Amino acid sequence: xxxxxxGFSDFLINLSGGNTALLxxxxxxxxxxxxxxxxxxxxxxxxxxxKGTEVSLAFAAGVMIVASFTSLILPGIEYAGKxxxxxxxxxxxxxxxxxxxxxxxxxxxxxxxxxxxxxxxxIKTAWLLVLTVVIHxxxxxxxxxxxxxxxxxxxxxxxxxxxxxxxxxxxxxxxPLAIITGKxxxxxxxxxxxxxxxxxxxxxxxxxxxxxxxxxxxxxGFAGGAMLYVTIKEMIPEIYKEQxxxxxxxxxxxxxxxxxLFLDSSLM
Length: 268
Known about the structure:
The structure is a single chain. By secondary structure, the chain is mainly alpha-helical. The protein has one domain (2-8, 21-266). Helix content is 81%, strand content 2%. It has helices at residues 2-16, 20-40, 50-80, 84-103, 125-150, 152-181, 184-211, 216-240, 246-266, and strands at 106-108, 112-114. A two-stranded antiparallel ribbon has the order 1-2. β1 (106-108) and β2 form a beta hairpin.
């Protein structure tokens, strides 16, 4: 597995010719395709399952917790040689996502509606679910883009990690949409578009921090903090809300945790 990933990673890095923006496009396409793959799997399901949703989100949460530290926060501290730039970035990342979450209406699959109540009756549930995934995808895309700007190999590792957890996330958004709208193709299109929003953030983050490299420690901290906030505030309460399947959910979380830890320790 190590040689396959390393070979593919080196191929893309060489293909980009050292162009950070082009490598970011490659990385963004990968995460978008994996999100789309997850959305495509919704075709083969006839109903949504809270159990399946919780297990999938738990796996994704495990990946994101580890990636926040090993791919973003700790490399940022090492790069800066000090703690405070990354700490400030973490605080800003948490604060910005908090503002987005509080002001942009969105619908959790298990937890339900969250945001400004006046929009609840004005926006269809399908769009509220899409907005939820976009809120999740923005920090993930920024994480990949910032990592690509920091170090190409680390960027590709982060791409793989985010891409793996994007597969169940793509299914989680597309399947409820298919059931709500009764149109599976429309749900898949929404899933692909949510992946496209991630691609945009990958490229934007990589280009910005390539040209403003002095801000990289802040950017790595920002992306790490944003991912941690989404994981701890949004995903973990969602998966444990029903207080059922707790052992299975916890096991799924640690599977994701160890998968990312293995990738980080073995593929670099």
